[in-house]
Design brief:
heterodimer; A: alpha+beta; Aldehyde Oxidoreductase, domain 4; 3 domains; seven-stranded mixed beta sheet; globular; B: 158 residues; Ubiquitin-like (UB roll); DNA polymerase, domain 1
């Protein structure tokens, strides 16, 4: 039959051989068709020759994928009578586009229209153990196969049900655009088959995945499935939900990081303010619940609190830098051969998303329900249950759509706090951190120094040594548990979590002889976390800047030097692509320059060519309540993320990574003084703004040479930051050593710390345009 | 409690709330209109950008007592209604360019874009790169380049 099922027809009759595209899964007992994927076949052992670089043997994503293996079978695809297909993704969507790419996988495998696939976010599911952590750019890598297996089983069941309905052979039916077509052009929609294809008892079945050459959805540019909701204001974030009696709640926070309440002079007075329903002292400050957030702000500002200094008492940028220097381990004796060295400082940076830390909590005596955007919802659920002394089954944690993350939502600070407040006052609360709270008390990318030494003789590089010293990064959100579970399988058994993460996430793409890199951490008094791309932007920036120095010493062009020393074809290909597309080496006016840099991670590779304008008339252009500085005028970014599910989504991620890289290199940092961060809002913290964006941005997606998806949500940050830094160095003739380069100039008037939040202006009508 | 009456997305509304409560909280916490987002509360991030009598304003900086019964507040929810369609051309341009990532800032971005294009039209000119550079709405996902493309496309069809 010409319209017979391609895959069924291809299967050798009676073959018992385990085809590499055949996988086992389940049909679950349910009223309509529900299928589930079982095991993901283990990644093929990597055949690279063992070397000094452990990321060639195993990297962070391998660890996370391995950790996910025993439980991946629990993800289910459901077919409904209205012809839609639904899937509850055990991951957090925070803008990275994974609901869209997951819907694409299902649409592809089932041959149903993308618009008929609904992907929601699963509640916290402790039975998934490690497999509900969104991080490490691992989502697509870990879920690519199991999602398709569940979808393929569903497709197979629908075909069987249709064949029965038509009285036809299985080879005579096929699915096109969500409709099953049988002999003589007979058709039946999958909605009409949803009950017929359902199982009365759970059974194991085999499925064969669609071969890549038959893909019609995967690899095609698709719009986000939530785009319409986003542009109409219908997309619901945690604070947009209507939960009965969950009144707005804010917390009056201390003037120093992690300060504590000593005493409160006027609780009753504030409780009597208009709209205020409750005022209660909690661990992190004084909570105010009111009819509106505006009245919470009024209450927070009216509270008279005496504070006990916090964990960073008296600390400043200068004192932390001294601590870091004291913690630095030796680089060893200077080599006898020629060498180049660099020492770099990376200041604190905020990973605040635009949606601040927030959560809704409804805690009762025997149960609790929480709504929040959480990338580690199982850990959150466990922590909440423990805090309340409730069994895990009495705690429901809903994962809401997130308004950005950048690492922030790996933690659940707001959820824990909302639970504490709701328990104390016995009412549901809708807790939101004020922006000033989010900036001053929220998680940060820790301050760090990085030292690099490269020794060489003639045209040969003998060794590369990097020593990264950082304020401790808090990885307690779940990566830790993964590493604990798998420690025995890793060649890093004696290392701590952070060093393990560091070693697993860093790669050495160059042939630089003996390669050694170490992380050393100090000072746990700050609220830190893994900001997008974690250690890589700083580590890569330091490396690429010293490589430019080495190239200059050897009398080589920065691009040609990198090309000559790169070890793998994927890195080489992205580098050559940006050099060609960006016309590397083209003549440029004085005060402007190009820079080029490379980064590989997440089984992916990226290269970035940047052009920057550092001429005084550009640097000093007037900007109201913001910073100008050098302007990146062009970015060419080439990305090889292996098999790309949605090129349009990948381009979006690379664009965002590029904006982050610009900010990290040029404008965005936190200034620490007297135990607190000076930055309290977006007019102090200078994330990339329209006036900082490159007029030209070209993103080039490389052809896939692997057949497997790599990670990409964070990939482009490191290479962009490094390329901007290299371009800045070449344009100004001085290698930048402190980041961001404008950190030494405070470009705003710090807001007061008492009261901790600024009052909203009243002159909004005067600024209408 | 004082009563405040104004027009919201084409309908007259009345709320009982103190004069100094900012319009953003009246919209979100009292009326349940959640398209305008909170990002700073001090009129710098622009996530709550909406229209007042056709001009872009930030409700986080307007006490509800400043509104008159004839004042017309338009949030992202009411934008399509201003052109009598399911979607405003700017929203369609946003879809065509697939601008949104997390989407949190996008209602404010779209409202700012519409006001910017209207102002340029009133001045009898096209949108310039300088106009686009001057947009103050923050997008922490960094969708800036697609925003610029969408505004140019949206302006052509407005």
């Amino acid at each position: 039959m010409a319209n017979g099922d391609d895959r069924a027809a291809q299967r050798p009759p009676g073959s018992q051989a385990f085809d590499r595209r055949r996988f086992l899964g389940f049909v679950l007992a349910a009223p309509t068709l529900v299928t589930a994927a079982e095991l993901v076949p283990a990644e093929q052992a990597r055949a690279d020759v063992p070397s000094a670089d452990i990321t060639e043997l195993v990297d962070l994503n391998d660890v996370m994928t391995l950790a996910a293996l025993p439980t991946s079978g629990l993800i289910t695809v459901q077919v409904h009578t209205d012809g839609t297909v639904s899937f509850a993704l055990p991951r957090a969507e925070v803008g990275q586009g994974i609901t869209t790419s997951t819907a694409m996988l299902i649409a592809e495998e089932m041959d149903v229209p993308l618009a008929k696939v609904r992907v929601t976010l699963a509640d916290a599911r402790p039975e998934l153990v490690f497999n509900q952590l969104t991080g490490g750019s691992n989502t697509t890598i870990a879920t690519y196969t199991p999602v398709r297996v569940a979808a393929a089983i569903a497709r197979g069941r629908l075909l069987e049900a249709a064949a029965t309905a038509f009285g036809a052979a299985l080879t005579e039916v096929t699915i096109r655009a969500g409709v099953v077509i049988g002999p003589a052009g007979r058709t039946i929609g999958i909605g009409a088959l949803a009950e017929k294809a359902a199982a009365v008892r759970t059974q194991q079945v085999a499925a064969e995945l669609k071969p890549a050459e038959q893909f019609t959805v995967i690899g095609t540019p698709q719009r986000r499935i939530d785009a319409l909701d986003a542009v109409t204001g219908r997309k619901k974030f945690a604070m947009d939900l209507t939960i009965p009696d969950a009144f707005p709640t804010m917390v009056c926070r201390p003037p120093t990081i992690n300060g504590k309440v000593g005493s409160v002079a006027n609780v009753d007075e504030v409780r009597a303010m208009p709209g205020v329903t409750d005022v209660v002292v909690i661990k992190s400050g004084v909570a105010v619940r009111a009819r509106t957030f505006g009245q919470c702000i009024d209450g927070v500002r009216a509270l008279k609190v005496s504070w006990v200094p916090g964990s960073a008492k008296g600390k400043s940028d200068e004192s932390v830098l001294r601590e870091l220097k004291a913690a630095e381990i030796t680089m060893g004796l200077p080599p006898l051969t020629p060498s180049v060295e660099g020492r770099f400082t990376f200041h604190f940076r905020s990973n605040s998303a635009l949606e601040p830390n927030c959560a809704i909590a409804d805690v009762r005596s025997d149960r609790a329900e929480i709504w929040s955007s959480l990338k580690a919802p199982i850990v959150a659920k466990e922590a909440i249950a423990a805090k309340l002394g409730l069994p895990l089954s009495a705690v429901t944690v809903h994962v809401t759509e997130g308004g950005g993350s950048f690492g922030r939502k790996l933690f659940f600070d707001a959820a824990l706090e909302a639970v504490e407040i709701s328990e104390r006052i016995g009412k549901p609360v809708k807790l939101m951190w004020h922006r000033a709270d989010d900036s001053r008390q929220g998680r940060t990318h820790p301050m760090a120094t990085s030292r690099v030494r490269i020794s060489y003789v003639g045209d040969t590089v003998l060794s590369y040594k990097q020593r990264h010293t950082s304020v401790a990064t808090d990885l307690s959100h779940g990566f830790g548990e993964i590493f604990t579970a798998l420690a025995a399988k890793l060649p890093v058994a004696d290392l701590g979590f952070s060093e393990t993460f560091f070693q697993l996430s860093q790669s050495m793409p160059y042939n630089f002889g003996v390669n050694s890199r170490l992380l050393n951490e100090t000072d746990k008094s700050f609220n830190t976390g893994s900001m997008r791309n974690v250690y890589s932007p700083d580590v890569t920036c330091a490396r690429e800047l010293v490589i430019d120095q080495l190239a200059a010493k050897m009398g080589k062009d920065p691009y040609r030097f990198r090309r000559d020393f790169l070890r793998d074809h994927r890195s080489l290909a992205v580098l050559e692509k940006v050099a060609e597309a960006g016309r590397w080496g083209r003549p440029m006016p004085e005060g402007t320059a190009q820079g080029i840099a490379l980064h590989s991670e997440y089984h992916s590779a990226s290269a970035v060519l940047v052009e920057i304008d550092c001429r005084p008339e550009t640097v000093n252009r007037p900007i109201r309540d913001g910073v100008a500085g050098p302007r990146v005028t062009r970015i060419v970014l080439a990305v090889d993320a292996g098999l790309t599910i949605n090129p349009r989504g990948l381009e979006a991620q690379m664009m965002g990574c590029a904006m982050d890289g610009i900010a990290l290199a040029l404008t965005s940092s936190l200034h620490l003084r007297d135990g607190y961060f000076l930055e309290a809002s977006w007019d102090n913290y200078f994330y990339t703004r329209q006036w900082n964006t490159p007029p030209e941005l070209d993103i080039i997606i490389m052809p896939d040479t692997t057949g497997k998806p790599g990670g990409a949500g964070e990939l482009g940050v490191a290479a962009t930051m490094a390329a901007v830094a290299c371009a800045y160095g070449r344009a100004t003739g001085t290698m930048p050593t402190t980041f961001p380069v404008n950190h030494g100039t405070l470009s705003f008037e710090p807001k007061p710390t008492v009261p901790p939040v600024p009052q909203s202006p009243t002159d909004g009508r005067d600024h209408a345009y | 409690m004082p009563k405040h009456t104004f027009r919201l997305n084409g309908e007259q509304v009345t709320v009982d709330i103190a004069d100094d409560v900012r319009l953003l909280w009246v919209l979100r916490d009292i009326l349940g209109v959640t398209g305008p987002k909170y990002g700073c509360g001090i009129n710098v991030c622009k996530a709550c950008t909406s229209h007042l009598n056709g001009r872009a304003v930030n409700p986080c900086a307007i006490p509800v007592g400043d509104l008159n019964p004839t004042d017309e507040v338009t949030t992202i929810e009411g934008l399509p209604g201003t052109v009598g369609a399911d979607l405003h051309p700017m929203q369609q341009a946003w879809l065509d360019q697939d601008v949104a990532q997390c989407g949190y800032c996008q209602p404010g971005q779209i409202m700012a874009a519409v006001a910017l294009v209207r102002r340029a039209a009133e001045e009898g000119r096209e949108i310039t790169e300088a106009d686009l550079d001057g947009i103050r709405n923050i997008c922490r996902c960094g969708t800036y380049l697609r925003i610029r493309e969408a505004i140019k496309a949206g302006a052509r069809s407005m």
